[in-house]
Description:
It is built from eight helices and five strands; from the N terminus they run αααααααβββαββ. By secondary structure, the chain is α+β, with helices and mostly antiparallel strands. The strands form two sheets. It has a three-stranded antiparallel β-sheet with strand order 3-5-4, covered by helices on one side. β4 and β5 form a beta hairpin.
Amino acid sequence: MLKPYDLLENILLDIENGIKNNINASVLSKKYDFSEGHLRRMFSFAFKQSIAAYIRSRTLAASLKDILETDANIVDIAVEYGFEYEQSYIRAFKREFGITPGDLRKTGTIIKIKPPLHLYNENKFGDSVLFGPDIVMVPSFQLIGKYHKMLLSDPRKVIAKQFWNNERMLIKSAVNPHVYIGLTRNLNRKPAYWSICRQYR
Length: 201
């Protein structure tokens, strides 16, 4: 069975290679032998968008070459890229780019497309995949908690659970005692060591 990083990387490649072959979640789930629901949840969690929406965006982006560089009929382009009806292709195209294929061909308007998704080596984390960070702005506040230094292989969930179950309620006057904030940093850049700070607001 493929590791999560390799699985997601293969799925992204399969989508790019299968755009003209009606690639979809059902085909991919059968190829990798797990449920379609699991595939949809995994993709959505990893990339913050549905796999169906991503495939549709990439299909429409691929069809731009035919619109702008050939004289092919719109209906033929629609069928080539897996749309059953010309009108469904035109509606999807306009939702994606804000213009119809015919008007784009006439005007050559500059439009924005979604580039293909990629995973990078920084996303690898052992046998799993590391995503993020998600960057947000929050007001200033103070944290109090516990500091741990551990091997990368140590059970971080166990330490977090111990703090959550046994020690968090000892913090008096917590602004929000049910919010958990975990901070992780690499102290000496040696791959095996991480320092994990479990803190509370």
